[in-house]
Amino acid sequence: MRRHFDSLIVGGGIIGSSIAFQLAKRGYKVAVLEKGKVAGKASGAAAGILGTQTELTEDDPLFRMACKSRSLYRSLIPELEDLSQLHIGWRNKGTYKVAVDQDQERELKRLIERQAELEERAEWLSIEELLKREPSISSELRGAMFIPEDGQLEAKELSHAFAKASVSLGAEFFEFINVADFILQEGKVLGVKTTAGEFLADSVVVASGAWSREVLERTGLSLPIIPVKGECFSVIPESPLIQGTIFSHGCYLVPKCSGRVLVGATVKVNSFDEKVTIDGVSSLMAKAQALVPGIGKAEWDRAWAGIRPQSADGQPFLGEHPDYKGLYIATGHFRNGILLAPVTGELIADLIEGKSDQPNPFDLTRLDSWDHTGKGVLL
Question: Is the distance from CB of 288 to CB of 263 less than 8 angstroms?
Fold first, then answer.
């Protein structure tokens, strides 16, 4: 069986669904092909932190892209909730990036100064000021950088909202369909071959997260994407422990609208193993209790793991395939897939429409100067 579309998207996570949403809004006939369930991998496992100033510290194209994406959420959330009839769990109580020692305190104060120069809001809170806002936090900390604009939401619900909103605009989603190969002819993509037959289209987007490298190898491209396993768990306290997200080296605590507190995340490089381990969870428990001692009395909820796509230089790949016209790539977002989903959807849709006339620092031309050894991996 053959099906014809304007654009095909390989991967039904947050990135693929965001691209589908943008294309469907622009009148494209779109199909999303997902080998499992929509948002069944990293998108459903993410903490949902919109950590522009929390995660990213340098004034570079990625930071500026993240700032733009965070701002897009203000109008996007009500639009998605209206179209999808899903509640995304948006919560904007800010993020506290805490210092456990004097060196970290000095570094965070320098970071606040740098971000002020970029006109991004952040302030230093002494431990006394921090305890007034978050009484459950450990008094052993030095203080925190408070970032009022870095909110958070429910990642899985957001991913489903993108998908449902896309469907309401005419997009089609196909779950449990595996892409076996691409249909390529004279330097152009014509579609894909799948376990359910051929899908033809003028453009194809590979947005398969950590599995993008495997998918793209069928085109002769060895994309330097590294799978990074992250384990998380959640608990349910009897009463609210924290209002804002607590972010530290190696651990974060995210209070959800439901009352749960999500704790993450471990980092295991080059692993597609999605099993949750005692070592992983116990290390997170110790770090979480050091930050918020009262979390030890909370009721256990559940634990899970996700596989995040990390590029060898820490930057996402967003652009056209170097050898085949009409074949686009959107992957390598690592810990910031949720944050960068809105701007990624817009950028890829612009490229497909031929509307983008600005330099793209995330395209695949940078592969030409790499030795493909993976040196310089950023975590």
Answer: yes
The predicted-structure confidence for 279-302, as pLDDT tens digits, reads as follows 999 999 999 999 999 999 999 999
Strand partners, 198: 2, 193
| Span 169-208, pLDDT tens digits | 999 999 999 999 999 999 999 999 998 999 999 999 999 9
| Domain 92-149+227-311, CATH homologous superfamily name and number | D-Amino Acid Oxidase, subunit A, domain 2 (3.30.9.10)
> Mean pLDDT for the chain?
94
CA 291/CA 246 separation, integer angstroms: 8
327 - beta bridge partners?
Answer: 204
What mean pLDDT comes out for the span 236-258?
95
The pLDDT confidence band at residue 1, using thresholds 50, 70 and 90, is low
List the beta bridge partners of residue 252.
Answer: 247, 264
Q: What residue ranges do the domains of the chain occupy?
A: 2-77+155-223+312-369, 92-149+227-311
| DSSP run (H or E) holding 249 | none
Q: What local confidence, expressed as pLDDT, does residue 379 receive?
A: 38
**Angstrom distance (rounded) from CA 93 to CA 88:** 15
- The residue type at 209: G
Length of the chain: 379
Return the sign of the alpha-carbon dihedral for residues 138, 141, 145, 151. negative
Q: Residue 370's pLDDT is what?
A: 62
Distance separating alpha carbons of residues 123 and 147, to the nearest angstrom? 7
3-state secondary structure of 308: strand
Strand (E) or helix (H) holding 117: helix 102-117
Residue whose C-alpha is closest to residue 236's, from 295, 307, 160, 150: 295
Q: Check: CATH 3.50.50.60 for 2-77+155-223+312-369?
A: yes
Task: Report the distance separating Cα 130 and Cα 290, nearest Å.
Answer: 15
